[in-house]
Design goal:
Distance between the termini: 28 Å
Number of strands: 6
Number of helices: 6
Shape: globular
Length: about 210
């Protein structure tokens, strides 16, 4: 399965028009356009242990002097978890803005459908590569391999969150106290316990690094 459940699509006209270095003002638009998930690793942003930032796809260090790209240029911004943003940092395979890949090292804009050609998610939530470029993503660009345990925990936690949302909606359709209602409630309790367990495990993991 794909690393991201839905392909992010940047809106053509953002709701704000920040100037200078105020690119963080685009964060709320990016959050919606990236479906509340990291553009790179697909982690959901609704958990208390994750922090999300605005990444410059083409690094600032590459265009600061020439100013060919503006700091707040929307089509160069990515909604990213802090881990992907920090690991990517100012990495870029060339000294030219237009050359993003050199010898199977570099980057593909996460809004490009081709991004998903290089990675896949395992059945337990891990991220592995389908190409040499994908291997660069995993081992160097974003260090998915070093973050494997945390990435898997985030994925497991998010699966429970989505299940609980479904159960809540189904319970709303039933009469409280009915057999169907009680059956769904029992399933929800089981998933809630699993959610709590993964949540605690993730917090312990983050506190240890």
């Amino acid at each position: 399965m794909n690393v991201r459940e839905k392909l992010p699509v940047r809106r053509k006209i953002p709701t704000k028009s920040p100037k200078g270095k105020n690119w963080s003002e685009h964060k709320s638009d990016l959050q919606e356009d990236f479906h509340y998930h990291c553009g790179y690793c697909g982690s959901y942003d609704g958990f208390r242990h994750t922090y999300f930032e605005v990444d410059h796809f083409v690094p600032k260090s590459l265009f600061e002097k020439g100013r060919k790209i503006k700091y707040c240029q929307y089509d160069n911004l990515v909604y990213s978890c802090k881990f992907c943003n920090n690991n990517k940092s100012s990495k870029w395979p060339s000294k030219r803005i237009s050359i993003s890949i050199v010898n199977n090292e570099g980057f593909i804009d996460p809004c490009d459908i081709k991004f998903d050609d290089h990675l896949y998610r395992t059945s337990d939530g891990g991220i592995l590569w389908k190409s040499d470029l994908g291997k660069y993503f995993v081992e160097q660009a974003f260090k998915f391999d070093e973050r494997d345990y945390g990435i898997k925990l985030l994925w497991e936690l998010n699966q429970r969150r989505k299940l609980l949302d479904v159960f809540i909606e189904e319970m709303k359709k039933r009469i409280p106290g009915s057999k169907d209602y009680n059956d769904i409630e029992e399933q929800a309790k089981i998933i809630s316990l699993e959610y709590y367990t993964f949540d605690k495990e993730l917090m312990d993991y983050y506190n240890s690094i």
